[in-house]
Amino acid sequence: MSAVTWQNAYSLGIPEIDEQHKTLFELINKLWDALVKRSSIESQLLVIEGLEHYTIAHFAAEETLMRVIKYPKLDAHKQTHDKFVQRIAEEKTRLLAGNGLSLDVLYFLKDWLVNHILIDDQDYAGFSQAIMRSSTSIITRFFGRFFRKN
């Protein structure tokens, strides 16, 4: 059972970003699994740290892309990213204090990510549509530097 499932409606049409979003879904589902299985605090901490690190890297890549395409709403978009990272950090602090994952954080992460993709990310994807079509190879190389598959 998963907390969140990827749907084609979430696709931005930017393959590198879509793959990163799918990975975020997988990481949120790992958190869900840790919660359902009542995993140890240490196991939960490993998962939340993995989510934190990946999220920071994904947001950095996404924000760099927005700078490159001169997306006019970058600052507001970055603020929403910062709030998400802050919420993950708060949950990590709870875990370090010996408290387990809360169901509330899973709902927040899932709802935030889905809504963010459907509204905020779709907005910049639409803005960049023409740029992406003419620069696919450049974008592919750009994201390849950040998220190399081993």
Instruction: Work out the helicity level.
Output: over 70%
Please tally the helical runs, counting DSSP H or I stretches of 4 or more residues: 5
User: What's the CATH H-level homologous superfamily?
Assistant: Hemerythrin-like
Q: Give the CA-CA distance, first to last residue.
A: 27 Å
Cα shape: elongated
CATH architecture: Up-down Bundle
Low-confidence stretches: none
Domains, number: 1
Quote the average pLDDT: 88
Fold blueprint:
Layout: H1 15-36, H2 41-68, H3 74-96, H4 103-134, H5 136-146
Helix pairs in contact: 1-2, 1-4, 2-3, 3-4
Report on this model:
It is a single chain. The chain is mainly α. Helix content is 77%, strand content 0%. It has one domain (12-146): Four Helix Bundle (Hemerythrin (Met), subunit A) (Up-down Bundle). It is elongated and about 50 Å long.
Describe, in short, the structure shown.
The chain is mainly α. 77% of the residues lie in helices and 0% in strands.
Question: How would you describe this structure in keywords?
Answer:
0% strand, 5 helices, single chain, Four Helix Bundle (Hemerythrin (Met), subunit A), 150 residues, 77% helix, mainly alpha
